[in-house]
Amino acid sequence: MRTGFDSDYAHAATTAQADSHARRTATRLARGPGQDQRTPEAPCCHHSPGRTGNAPARCLVHERARALGSKAGSVPGRVVQEEQLEAMKKSSEWNERIRGGRNWRCFMGSIYRRKGSPFYWISYYQDGLQKRESSGSEKVTKAKELLRKREGAIADGKPVNPKSEKIRFSDLAALVVDDYTINQYKSLEIIKARLKNHIIPAFGHRKATTITTADLTGYVIERQAGGVSNANVNRELSVIRRAFTLAIKAGLLFHKPYFPMLREDNARQGFFELEQFEKVVSKLRKPLQPVARFAYITGWRIASEILPLEWRQVDFRAGTVRLFPGMTKNRKGRVFPFTRDLRAVLEGQWIEAVRLKAKGMTCPYVFNRKGKVIRDFRAAWRKACEKAGVFGRIPHDLRRTAVRNLVRAGVPERVAMQLTGHLTRSVFERYNIVSEGDLLTAARMLDRFTHATSTNASTNLQPVLKTSA
Predict the structure, then answer these.
(1) Residues 147, 230: one domain?
(2) What contacts 462, CB < 8 A, 6 or more positions away?
């Protein structure tokens, strides 16, 4: 049951409600104490008398009508209510608190207590629907502050969701894990490790709405002080940002803070010259040599695209090898036409498959070790690099080398991206790949421009020299 505590301003209803409420109030006050059923100390017309011993507050319309009515004297009620209503509409307080833009708003928010609850509750209207919410406090002032906050957000056109203020970041982290699990992202375990070891200890206990850019900056400073690279810090910030994005999509939050991403040194220099590549390949075991040659030619990812490659994806008649949609990192299909070296690699593997089949062993994988799929390539690669005296190289350097070889061969960037599976041209900036042919062409153009300028200058000076002579 309500106790009669009305907010000074609350959610608006309609113009008709505002007029009706003010007219009823002004008419009742114009009748005088003897004719009105309510006493001057009675609460608002739509509330019952207070039952908690506290003096009930009155809504803005009621207070304005009572103040103006006391000055009206014995003017008939109808005239009083019209004059009062017009005066109320012209007042600055009415314009600021009640008009609220183009539509009039008769504020009907209230504060009350529920039976069996020690806390004060607030009631307000949003989109024509009544909303009730606990203030979580036994103090009336706290309830009033919450009601003003809700009414202010509604007046500004901002969405209001009381549950968003109770959600902690640990709940948002669960959304990220669920998203990676549903979409079967291979980096799920990495994400779990980042959340468990670094992000949850820093933000897990915090309410999501209280995390600000300043908090994120402090997190970055703390991680950098621990010797963490900018790249790893950015990956962690990306996880946090993903959590906020998923919460907004789910309607749990309505905004997210700005994320201070760090600059990374992405000019990677891990490339293979042909001589170096042949040295490393010669140190690999025989079943792994075709894997390295395939990666050097195509630039495909070894672990996720080359090792799982099956014979059904190879077409010798069409001269193509393809990755079906869903088999790649970006979930898009890809086709790579045979080169002479690529055909030689695949034909050699086919001969090996026929030999295995003659022994009664059938293997669907193009690259295998005695009929079994190759699970790991990195350990063997690292040992081969050490034996060849080529240190600090990783299998992904073969992908970078393939992109550079395509550019050097004069293949347009767009076509090179389609062959290797890059969605954006950022690979050329990140790998610092520039065509030497383009550089030579630029030098020749500069040379022609400089020569032409000097020739024109000397031609213009000749008449001057002749005249002076």
Answers:
(1) no
(2) none
Q: Which helix (H) or strand (E) holds 122?
A: strand 120-126
* 19/138 same-domain check: yes
- Please, are residues 248 and 256 in contact by the beta-carbon 8 Å criterion? yes
Give the position of tokens 């293979």.
272
Both tokens of 126, joined, read 């949003």
Picking from 381, 382, 418, the residue whose alpha carbon sits closest to that of residue 402 is 418
The domain boundary residue, chosen from 249, 265, 285:
249
Rounded Cα distance, 255 and 327, in Å? 35
Of 239, 234, 224, 230, the residue nearest 187 (C-alpha): 239
Domain-located, residue 32:
yes
What tokens were used for 313? 């994806």
In a domain, 388, yes or no: yes
Output the six-digit token pair for 347: 């034909």
209: containing domain = 169-249
Residue 400 CB coordination number (10 Å): 22
Q: How far apart are CA 85 and CA 62, in angstroms?
A: 11
Please report, for the domain that includes residue 351, its CATH number.
1.10.443.10
Residue 75 CB burial class (10 angstroms; 0-12, 13-18, ≥19): middle
Strands 314-315 and 320-323 come out as: antiparallel
92 alpha carbon, distance to own chain's centre: 43
Q: What pLDDT tens digit does each residue of the chain (469 aa) get?
A: 444 434 333 333 444 455 555 556 555 555 554 444 444 444 444 444 444 444 444 454 455 445 544 443 433 444 444 555 555 545 544 444 444 433 333 345 888 888 888 999 888 887 778 888 888 888 888 888 888 888 887 877 777 777 777 889 999 999 999 999 998 888 899 999 999 999 999 999 999 989 999 999 999 999 999 999 998 999 999 999 999 999 999 888 888 999 999 987 655 567 888 899 999 999 999 999 999 999 999 999 999 899 999 999 999 999 999 999 988 887 889 999 999 999 999 999 999 999 999 988 889 999 999 888 898 888 999 999 999 998 888 898 999 899 888 888 888 888 988 898 888 777 676 665 666 666 777 888 888 888 777 666 666 555 544 444 4
pTM over 0.85: no
Give the end of a domain, one of 160, 180, 211. Answer: 160
Total of domains in the chain:
4
Statement to judge: residues 316 and 383 lie in one domain: yes
Residues 24 and 111 in one domain: yes
